[in-house]
Write a structure and sequence with these properties.
binds coenzyme A; 5 helices; alpha+beta
Length: about 200
Amino acid sequence: MTPDPRVRIETARLQLREMTDDDLPDLRAILHDPQAMTAYNGAFSAAESMAWLQRQRQRYRDDGFGLWAVVRGDTGRMIGQCGITRQQIDGDQVIEVGYLFQRAHWGHGYGVEAAAACRDWAFSTLPIDELYAKIRSTNIASMNLAIRLGMTVRRTFTTHYRGVDMPHLAFAIDRGTWARRSDARPIGFRGDVAN
Ligand SMILES: CC(C)(COP(=O)(O)OP(=O)(O)OC[C@H]1O[C@@H](n2cnc3c(N)ncnc32)[C@H](O)[C@@H]1OP(=O)(O)O)[C@@H](O)C(=O)NCCC(=O)NCCS
């Protein structure tokens, strides 16, 4: 199946595109890994992974964005998911950047590279004043990534997910701070670099 070409974002080493059913095996390499899914209270079942994929595809239809496949330019293989979603924090609607990578590809800067491109896409494309990242209080790697995006902690809150109360931190970056960053790169809806 040909991936839906609606959103395409390119970085130096990565391409981001909408996920299709063909991506399920690469998605499972993340969602069925208990270590990668620590912040989500452990590995997903096959049914939960399928529901996750369908949810992203519904988001593409409803919002025009969601978690996208992150594909390495050199191998053409999907190594992670990164993208933009609508979320709630204590009843407030926010726009979030999310990121989950296969463990074999951690620690090479792919997370920051993909998430920075999604941050740039969000501020370039959506009428938002702030971009958030909801991060479980135990997820140090994710917090360090958010800091690398220019985010700071705005508040704490607790979610109830898969039967567990999870203390969280809300990280965010505002539009003005983003615009002043030397790595901010305005990009268009299809990921074209704006002049
Ligand atoms: C969070 C995650 C996406 C980071 O991806 P990554 O590709 O390893 O990140 P990068 O290599 O781009 O590193 C980005 C920064 O994050 C931090 N970081 C990454 N892994 C870390 C770790 N294990 N411990 C502490 N900090 C870490 C570092 O500060 C790093 O900056 P550096 O380049 O100065 O070292 C990855 O660990 C992951 O997929 N985790 C499981 C899913 C998840 O929890 N997602 C977040 C949900 S909120």
